């Protein structure tokens, strides 16, 4: 079974631009969550989607948005990029529809550098 | 952002030694997960815990869900060089889909 696939793996953007990251979950998984990882803040929850609906959102500004498609693939978008948005963005998928016992499996991440 | 207290922050051990690390929270959790992350890669799930008091093993790794539901422990026995990496705990509270992660334990194994 293929794991969580994220694209692109690496990208460099300029301040003020916007970026879209893509995530394909493990086959059969319908829950997709996104996390930001930085040296200073560690792993921080961005949002979680299930059946195209956002069920939980972390404490990030509105510049961070996401969506999920009917095939469970997900995208996240960051608009008006700032230097502080440089981070590893991780997508995780889960086969559980409920919060209880919701084990998440990560992809390899997308490294975003904002210059 | 929120992070769980994870200790120790780093460890340097000799090959063959046992390792212990733990995570603590001020609130209760329903699920604890433990991950290992290598440089430039995403976290890889090691062990999942779903019940207070649960003790689960995965090869040389053993993890426990604390009875208070506010802590968890990971032990690695007979460490080997490939155990090098950063270990994270993650806890999920009742009624939420988000996980809060620990600050990480950086493990280095000296051959």
- What's the tally of helices of chain A? 0
Terminal Cα span of chain A: 37 Å
Strand content of chain B: over 45%
Average predicted confidence as pLDDT of chain B: 95
Put simply, the count of helices of chain B is: 0
Radius of gyration of chain A: 13 Å
**Helix and strand string of chain A, N-terminal first?**
EEEEEEEEEEE
Q: For the residues shown, what is the average pLDDT of chain A?
A: 95
Helical amount of chain B: under 10%
Overall strand count of chain B: 11
Helix fraction of chain A, binned, reads under 10%
Largest sheet of chain A: 7 strands, mixed
Largest sheet of chain B: 6 strands, mixed
Structural category of chain B is mainly beta
Low-confidence stretches of chain A: none
Gist of the model:
In chain A, 0% of the residues lie in helices and 52% in strands.
Description:
The complex is a heterodimer of chains A (115) and B (111). By secondary structure, chain A is mainly beta. Chain A is built from no helices and eleven strands. In chain A, strands 2, 4, 5, 6, 9, 10 and 11 form a seven-stranded mixed β-sheet that branches. A four-stranded antiparallel β-sheet of chain A has the order 1-3-8-7, with no helix packed on it. In chain A, strand 4 (31-38) and strand 5 form a beta hairpin. The termini of chain A are far apart. The model of chain A has no long low-confidence stretch (mean pLDDT 95). Chain B is mostly beta strands and 111 residues long. Helices cover 0% and strands 52% of the residues of chain B. Chain B contains no helices and eleven strands. The mean pLDDT of chain B is 95. Chain A binds chain B through residues 4, 6, 31, 33, 35, 41-45, 48, 50, 55-56, 58-59, 90, 99-109, 111, and chain B through 1-3, 30-31, 33, 35, 40-45, 48, 50, 88, 90, 92, 94-104.
């Amino acid at each position: 079974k293929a794991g969580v696939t994220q694209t692109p793996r690496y990208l460099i953007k300029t301040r003020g631009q916007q970026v879209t990251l893509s995530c394909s979950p493990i086959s059969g998984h319908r829950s997709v969550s996104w996390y930001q990882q930085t040296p200073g803040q560690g792993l921080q929850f961005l949002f979680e989607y299930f059946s195209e609906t956002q069920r939980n959102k972390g404490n990030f500004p509105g510049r961070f948005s996401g969506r999920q498609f009917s095939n469970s693939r997900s995208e996240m978008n960051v608009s008006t990029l700032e230097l502080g948005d440089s981070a590893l963005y991780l997508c995780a998928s889960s086969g559980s529809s409920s919060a209880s016992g919701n084990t998440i499996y990560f992809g390899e991440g997308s490294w975003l550098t904002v210059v | 952002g929120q992070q769980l207290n994870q200790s120790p922050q780093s460890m340097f051990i000799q090959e063959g030694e046992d390792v212990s690390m733990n995570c603590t929270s001020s609130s209760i959790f329903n699920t604890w997960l433990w991950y290992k992350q290598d440089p430039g890669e995403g976290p890889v799930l090691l062990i999942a815990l779903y019940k207070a008091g649960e003790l689960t093993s995965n090869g040389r790794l053993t993890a426990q869900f604390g009875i208070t539901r506010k802590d968890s422990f990971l032990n690695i026995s007979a460490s080997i060089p490939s155990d090098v990496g950063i270990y994270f705990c993650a806890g999920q509270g009742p009624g939420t889909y988000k996980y809060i992660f620990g600050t990480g334990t950086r493990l280095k194994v000296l051959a």
